[in-house]
Specification:
By secondary structure, the protein is of the alpha/beta class. It contains 11 helices and 17 strands. It is elongated, with a radius of gyration of 31 Å.
């Protein structure tokens, strides 16, 4: 009787075991593919985190940043079947409530990278056992913020006001410049590069204003000088004077002979305000622009820039030398000394005209840009001391630019080249002036804005999800 009962129980156990196999296998498959899904999601989020830091350092929302996201996902997820979607976004401070909040004193730009990947299931399941199906998707995302400098800075814009700034982005000249229409098929289509650049400057100052509104202390300030083949600024009687920042050779009629100049003498007088130009190249006199000294009154600053007009050729050396004088005098609308952080940005749509290309390179070799840096930060200079400005040169060395906090000043000089066919590497003098790491190219208005704001920003911070 007992043996018979054991046999019956043994039969029941076998039946129960057989009945449990699908359940146990289902648990196994869910655990296996479930673990894969969790692991894939973790790897995708790691990829998104790495990608968003790279994108925020790059600073733009374009095809390059999207491809960067794709490359990181492909590197981190070797076993994915396909990349379903990748999205890269850049959100300005004005689009983020937490950035525009009254208690936020650090304006920032936020970058977001999100993706979805598809994976083939190991155990898809069937009518008997459960599973994930033939495939499963996982999603992951990450964010990073690039904060505007925690310290106010003085930004000096060196703007190109040559005639080509009136061209559109494809290189077509407007009808009133028929004599300058380049050999580019098609008709002029506004806006012009100059119009867009004016808008960019205003958008930059709008971002700076967010910080200024949040502090009772020192504020961001901006200044501007322009150039074509000469510079223009006001004299003591308020009249505009076209000036040549070079020391040139004069003939008996008082004009420079063959545009010959003396590079060593030019550098020696780099920080001296020049008199009226002995000769103005044809067309350059049609341009209308002048210097604007350091101000935090951005509305007035932009109002003046909107009225400026471009014409003539290009000689960036003129703008750099004039900027040296603007920095050294450092006249501010609030009467305060300079902010410790200085940023100088050269913005141009083409390489220097004709012989000015070589002249810029020569002056850089003679120390034009090193003088500007060392005048601000302190260090050796090869120029005479201008007794009327704020920087003292003694025994061939600068004491540095006085600051409103007493801190040692620092400066970064950068260039942004833009426009159809402009290769910044062809402008060797400018490239040597700023250094390869500070030379950037842009193809449109948005890219210029992104590059400038990247120069203004100083920190990249990861945001936890």
């Amino acid at each position: 009787m007992i043996m018979k009962l054991k046999k019956q129980q043994s039969g029941h156990a076998a039946i129960l075991f057989v009945m449990c196999i699908p359940v146990l296998f289902g648990v196994f498959t869910l655990a296996s593919d479930g673990a894969r899904a969790l692991q894939s999601k973790a790897r995708l989020e790691d990829a998104a985190e790495a990608a968003v830091l790279a994108v925020s350092a790059y600073g733009e929302e374009d095809e390059v940043s999207t491809q960067t996201g794709k490359d990181y996902v492909a590197h981190y997820l070797h076993d994915m079947s396909s990349l379903v979607d990748i999205k890269v976004e850049k959100l300005e401070c004005s689009e983020l409530p937490e950035c525009t909040a009254d208690d936020n004193d650090r304006p920032f730009v936020e970058y977001q990278v999100s993706g979805r990947t598809k994976h083939t299931s190991w155990f898809p399941g069937n009518d008997v056992t459960v599973g994930f199906g033939e495939s499963f998707d996982v999603t992951g995302s990450s964010k990073a913020r690039k904060f505007q400098s925690s310290q106010p800075m003085d930004i000096t814009f060196i703007l190109d006001f040559s005639g080509s700034m009136n061209y559109d982005w494809e290189g077509h000249a407007p009808s009133y410049m028929e004599e300058e229409i380049p050999k580019v098929p098609g008709r002029y289509s506004p806006p012009s590069r100059l119009s867009d650049l004016k808008d960019v400057v205003q958008m930059v100052t709008d971002e700076l204003q967010v910080y200024n509104n949040s502090t009772a202390g020192p504020k961001h300030r901006v200044a501007m000088t322009g150039y074509n083949r000469r510079t223009v600024n006001e004299s003591s009687n308020g009249k505009f004077v076209i000036r040549d920042q070079r020391i040139t050779k004069y003939n008996s009629d008082g004009y420079d002979a063959g545009d010959t100049f003396y590079p060593k003498k030019t550098i020696n007088k780099q920080f001296m305000v020049k008199g009226a130009a002995a000769r103005v190249p044809n067309g350059d006199e049609k341009a209308e622009f002048t210097d604007i000294m350091y101000t935090s009154d951005f509305a007035s600053f932009n109002h003046k820039i909107k009225s400026f007009e471009a014409f003539g050729g290009t000689a960036s050396l003129q703008g750099i030398i004039r900027a040296s004088q603007i920095v050294s005098y450092h006249i501010t609308n609030d009467g305060e000394e300079a902010n410790p952080k200085q940023l100088i940005i050269i913005l141009s749509d083409g390489e220097d005209f004709n012989h000015y290309l070589g002249q810029t390179e020569t002056l850089v070799d003679y120390g034009m840009c090193d003088n500007l840096r060392n005048a601000i930060e302190g260090g050796p200079v090869s120029s005479e001391d201008n007794k009327e400005d704020k920087i003292v040169f003694s025994s061939g060395s600068s004491s540095g630019l006085p600051t409103n906090t007493g801190e040692d000043p620092s400066v970064r000089i950068a260039m942004i080249g833009f426009g159809d066919g402009y290769d910044i590497h062809a402008n060797t003098g400018l490239l040597n002036c700023v250094g390869e790491e500070n030379a950037f190219s842009a193809n449109n208005k948005d890219e210029i804005l992104n590059l400038i704001m990247s120069l203004v920003s100083e920190e990249v911070g990861h945001l936890a999800q």
